[in-house]
Specification:
The longest helix is centred in the last third of the chain and has 26 residues. Helices cover about 35% and strands about 20% of the residues. It has a 7-stranded mixed beta sheet. The radius of gyration is 22 Å and the shape is globular. Helix 6 crosses helix 13, helix 11 crosses helix 12 and helix 13 crosses helix 14. The chain is α+β, with helices and mostly antiparallel strands and about 400 residues long.
């Protein structure tokens, strides 16, 4: 294997989804000779931003890399593109303006494709070819659901079950993308969809309010999520049993452990904010937001008579408690008639949609289409939901 594979990899395609909180990147390296078990070597700073967003899928056409960076630290993303030669002129000296001949065009979606367009041109000579955000989300979801037999799954009470999607009976469905905010999209076909609802209470709410409540201002989203994993929301949430003396309210189907009021115990207890454990507040906050999203999603599915609800976006992160909470909410409000369904590539729908848009223009010899098809045919994915260990981190050029 090459001593420094990322320095020699040449990307066939690169696509970005630049959101308010995270930048999602998808790129294909066509000459990756690394084994499926190898990691992309990145610098210490880059590894902190990539975190568990690092994933690689090996196909017959090369290796598809999935990465994420914090939008607030976009310089790390720009440096990664430059250091890994994802554009032919990535080694231009700092502040040197590329000539018109040098400029490259890449697909990008999300609000940041507009906000940071000048920055990409100034720093890397890259023109961001802007693709509509909703178009990309739907295209990414549709492509994955059609191509990958192990893309969609249900999760409840610790049990994960992959679903076989009938491609002839896939539509209509509700796509719930949970990013900084939440978009709910009624999908009726490959290019037929409508954003029917949404909520501002999403991943950005969890991260922002979580930092304020826990006073852990240096926490990343993933660190706050891990903190919630060890918390106990019952310390702060008011349950039905707290109101009914430990009893169920069986007449309307509420168990004693059902949350009656998120953060409700803080009303009656003579405590200050610092008296509560950060992990308990993080847990309560995560449960409140997840419950709310699950309920609103089902109500919108009911509104349009949709039987399938797919959840995507980087809020979920494959986190078991988050998925379980959303699933329980959908199950409760639908009286067991509907199920929440999750996606393996949940956070990269927009980036994948932008990536596959190359095909529509006839570029890349339909490589994007072939790639998506191969996601279900012997593709090996590595690095999913992993954090690089210090021993695995290797600075560029060493």
């Amino acid at each position: 294997m090459d001593e420094n594979p990322t320095k020699t990899n040449q990307s066939a395609h690169l696509a970005l989804d630049i959101g308010g909180t995270l930048i999602k990147m998808v790129y294909l390296s066509s000459d990756d000779n690394c084994s499926p078990d190898s990691q992309v070597k990145v610098s210490q700073e880059e590894s902190n931003e990539i975190s568990d967003g690092l994933m690689k899928c090996h196909t017959g056409k090369g290796t598809l890399h999935f990465l994420k960076f914090e939008t607030s630290k976009i310089d790390d993303c720009l440096e990664f593109i430059s250091s890994n030669q994802l554009c032919s002129h990535g080694d231009l000296p700092d502040k040197k303006q590329p000539s018109a001949h040098d400029r490259k065009l890449i697909k990008a979606t999300g609000g940041g494709a507009f906000k940071f367009a000048d920055l990409f041109m100034e720093r890397l000579g890259i023109t961001l070819d802007k693709v509509d955000e909703m178009d990309c989300l739907v295209a990414g979801a549709n492509s994955l659901l059609k191509a990958n037999n192990q893309e969609a799954f249900t999760y409840m009470n610790g049990h994960k079950e992959y679903l076989q999607i009938d491609h002839n009976d896939m539509y209509p469905y509700l796509l719930v993308n949970i990013g900084s905010g939440v978009s709910m999209i009624k999908v009726e076909g490959d290019e037929k969809f409508e954003r029917v609802s949404g909520t501002s209470v999403g991943g950005g709410t969890f991260w922002g309010l979580g930092k304020l409540l826990t006073n852990c201002k240096s926490f990343s989203f993933d660190e706050l999520l891990k903190l919630s994993h060890v918390g106990n929301n019952r310390v702060i949430d008011m349950l039905v049993g707290d109101i009914y003396g430990g009893l169920d309210y069986s007449k309307i189907g509420l168990s004693s452990t059902t949350i009656a009021s998120s953060f409700g115990k803080a009303i009656s207890e003579n405590k200050e904010l610092e008296d509560y454990k950060p992990e308990d507040m993080a847990r309560s906050l995560l449960r409140m937001i997840s419950n709310n999203i699950g309920q609103i999603s089902y109500l919108n599915a009911l509104r349009f008579g949709l039987k399938r609800i797919f959840f995507g976006g980087f809020f979920i992160r494959g986190h078991e408690f988050t998925m379980d909470t959303i699933s329980v909410a959908v199950d409760f409000w639908s009286k067991g008639e509907a199920k929440a369904m999750f996606l393996r590539h949940e956070g990269f729908l927009g980036a994948l949609g932008a990536y596959t848009s190359y095909q529509k223009e006839g570029s890349g010899e339909s490589m994007s289409h072939q790639l998506v098809e191969q996601l279900s045919n012997g593709v090996q994915c590595t690095g999913e939901n992993q954090r690089l260990l210090p021993a695995e981190i290797k600075s560029q050029g060493k």
